[in-house]
Design brief:
Strand content: 15-25%
Radius of gyration: 17 Å
Number of helices: 9
Strand order of the largest sheet: 3-2-1-4-5-6-9
Number of strands: 9
Structural class: alpha/beta
Distance between the termini: 31 Å
Helix content: 40-55%
CATH class: Alpha Beta
Shape: globular
Number of domains: 1
């Protein structure tokens, strides 16, 4: 990704702590990272050098609002790569799950993906180059009980990404999705304990797969849903 301009959503989150340094190491010229929580920005900066921080533009934004997404992307010099990490899960039995929470899950996991892909793709088509990498879930293809909203919304992410890949055939734009199992992040350790954490996917390991799909070398891979399951 040397010299590329990257939109990296979720770059300050738990997975972002592994992906952002990896993207910087790949030689990205400029990275735009939208954020919601300023504390997460400081946590990321704490593991980066001043030179690395200088290559990042942090933008406070709500990625579920189209005007906000469009504004961020229009302000970028160009969008060579979109890496979309934003997402989250909540648990509950289907017959007890509220419609309000269902809509929140879909906004977080699927609506944000649609909006950043839509406007990044517009810029990529203008420049005739692009790499789109989204994050689905093992649950998207192997749904589990009490995770219906999460699995359904992540299945939507997979379908959306594959549709974009089909739309961009014959161009130098690709779209692929990774399917992690449980990712070893601070929030997952807090929610699930650490008993099986050694079997979970490390953020740094998933970052390497993401960076490959976002690179020039992955030009012949499109519409792939890549399982990254660790030892779970």
């Amino acid at each position: 990704m040397k010299g590329k301009h990257i939109l990296l959503t979720g770059g300050t989150g738990g997975l972002g702590l592994g992906v952002t340094p990896a993207v910087l190491a790949q030689g990205a010229a400029a990275i735009t990272i939208p954020y919601y929580n300023p504390k997460e920005v400081e946590r990321l900066k704490a593991i980066l050098s001043p030179a690395e921080i200088a290559r990042i533009k942090f933008v406070c934004a709500n990625l579920a609002e189209e005007a906000s997404v469009e504004n961020i992307i229009n302000q970028m010099q160009r969008v060579d790569v979109l890496i979309h990490l934003v997402g989250g899960f909540a648990m509950g039995k289907t017959h007890e799950y509220s419609l309000e929470n269902w809509k929140k899950d879909f906004d977080l996991n699927l609506t944000t993906t649609f909006l950043v892909c839509k406007h990044s793709l517009r810029r990529m088509l203008e420049n005739r180059y692009g790499r789109i990498v989204t994050v689905g879930s093992r649950g998207a293809v192997e749904p589990s009980g009490q995770l219906a909203a999460y699995c359904a919304s992540k299945a939507g992410v997979v379908a959306l990404t594959k549709a974009i890949a089909d739309e961009t055939k014959g161009t130098n734009i690709t779209a692929n999705v990774v399917l992690p199992s449980v990712i070893d992040t601070p929030s997952n350790r807090e929610a699930m304990g650490v008993e099986n954490a050694d079997k979970w996917v490390k953020a740094e390991s998933l970052a390497q797969v993401i960076c490959f799909l976002a690179s020039e070398a992955a030009k012949d891979i499109r519409g792939a849903a890549v399982p990254v399951y660790g030892s779970v």
